[in-house]
Design brief:
Layout: H1 7-15, E1 20-23, H2 29-42, E2 47-52, H3 58-67, E3 72-76, H4 84-88, E4 93-98, H5 101-110, E5 114-118, E6 124-125, H6 133-141, E7 148-151, H7 157-165, E8 170-172, H8 175-178, H9 187-195, E9 201-204, E10 211-214, H10 217-226, H11 232-239, H12 243-249, H13 273-293
Parallel strand pairs: 1-2, 2-3, 3-4, 4-5, 5-7, 7-8
Antiparallel strand pairs: 6-10, 9-10
């Protein structure tokens, strides 16, 4: 949810009865502090911060989270052993995002309170094994004894119920909330998500960090470069800096990274967060009743 989930989306989510998360991956430390402070003013409900652990100023980010009294942290893109003990000693609940059984077990061993198991349908940075959510959830459930949160390809109440039948205790939803009124994404990107259809996204750049993108001019440039058997350095040169900001936040639909999940194909409108949550929960309850009738 980099460049999509600021304080407005996080607070609106928490106010709607779910757990909102601020995406720290796109924020300088003091920007994150500002978003946390604004979120605290906008909601009295719990909210958390998602922290990709691959950034150089990670210590400063973690210190700000503690100073501002955030009680829930979702970590990703790194070794959970690095920060889990430190955060838990400060009374913070720690959830780690994984893409495989192996990493789920490592996260459990590190002492996290729960894991998010994310299938490769998901948008943005992703696992290398391309394990789908409906395959990953039961495999992880079989191996761990801490709470399991399903992610990847979930945007509806029926999908939420399906993952719970397979063993998930909860779900994490990203792409659906990109197309919300409170998302900080550029309106042009939101509209592109709504217009996306099956096959419009692809996982690429696996040599660097696998990422699912909407196919656009930049994506096509990547595919052309692959025809030359490029080195990692050549891929990095093409990627450059701030591609995600350029695409999702600034609305450059040709030259930016447009990160979204495969589930974009069933996202057809931009709504307030409260309405999205209401729709998902209503469909979830209806689906449960339908199963009982069967």
């Amino acid at each position: 949810m980099v460049w999509n989930s600021g304080w407005r989306l996080a607070s609106a989510s928490s106010n709607s009865g779910i757990l909102g998360l601020i995406g720290a991956g796109s924020m300088y430390p003091e920007t994150l502090r500002e978003h946390i402070q604004k979120c605290k003013k906008a909601t009295t409900k719990p909210f958390g911060v998602n922290v990709p652990m691959l950034y150089p100023n990670i210590q400063e980010i973690m210190d700000i989270i503690v100073e501002e009294g955030v009680k829930i942290v979702f970590t990703s893109a790194g070794n959970p052993k690095t920060w889990t003990k430190w955060l838990k000693e400060k009374g913070i609940t720690v959830v780690h995002v994984v893409s495989s059984v192996k990493f789920a077990l490592k996260a459990q061993e590190a002492g996290v309170n729960a894991v998010v198991a994310e299938g490769f349908e998901a948008g943005g940075h992703n696992g290398r094994d391309e394990t789908t959510t409906l395959t990953l959830i039961p495999m992880v459930k079989e191996q761990i004894n801490i709470p399991l949160i399903a992610a990847g390809g979930i945007a509806t109440g029926k999908a939420m119920l399906a993952t719970m039948v397979l063993g998930a205790d909860a779900v994490q939803i990203g792409s659906r909330f990109v197309a919300s009124e409170e998302s900080s994404a550029h309106i042009a990107f939101k509209q592109t998500v709504v217009e996306s259809k099956e096959g419009d996204t692809q996982l690429t750049l696996k040599e660097l960090a696998p990422v699912r993108l909407i196919k656009n001019k930049f994506y096509n440039e990547i595919q052309e470069l692959y025809k030359t058997a490029p080195t990692k350095e050549q891929l990095k040169e093409l990627l450059g800096r701030a591609r995600a900001k350029k695409g999702m936040f600034e609305g450059d639909l040709e030259n930016g990274e447009l990160e979204i999940g495969q589930v974009a194909g069933i996202i057809h409108d931009i709504k307030p967060v409260a309405n999205i949550v209401e729709d998902i929960m209503a469909e979830f309850e209806d689906a449960k009743k339908e199963i009982i009738r069967m």
